[in-house]
Amino acid sequence: MKLTGMRNQCQGCKQYFNSNHAFDKHRVGKHGSDRRCRTTEEMLELGMSLNSANFWITEKRDAKHFMDLREAEQPDDDEG
Ligand SMILES: [Zn+2]
User: Fold this and answer.
1) Phi and psi for 50 in degrees, rounded to 5?
2) pLDDT band at 76 (very low <50, low <70, confident <90, very high)
3) Rounded CA separation 6/20 (Å)
4) What pLDDT is recorded for position 4?
5) How far is the CA of 62 from the centre of ligand 1 (A)?
6) How many angstroms separate the CA atoms of 71 and 68, rounded?
7) Residue 58 C-alpha to ligand 1 middle, in angstroms?
8) Partner of 26 at 20 to 30 A CA spacing, among 2, 45, 47, 63?
9) How many A from CA of 39 to the centre of ligand 1?
């Protein structure tokens, strides 16, 4: 699968995410100690869902809306 723009694949669980925001939301715990991926069940409980392309999204809304809400969290990129 070709990944473009903000989309990325988790190296831990191999799931695809539509944005860094969605990716970050599925990671839980502290760096270097108990950092892990949330399960599918946990992601669904958070209101996340898969879009039509099988990418995880934070909510069933236009992603552009949520890009504006992204906070100062640093993206994770080299763990797993
Ligand atoms: Zn993961």
Assistant:
1) -90, 135
2) low
3) 6
4) 62
5) 23
6) 8
7) 14
8) 2
9) 8
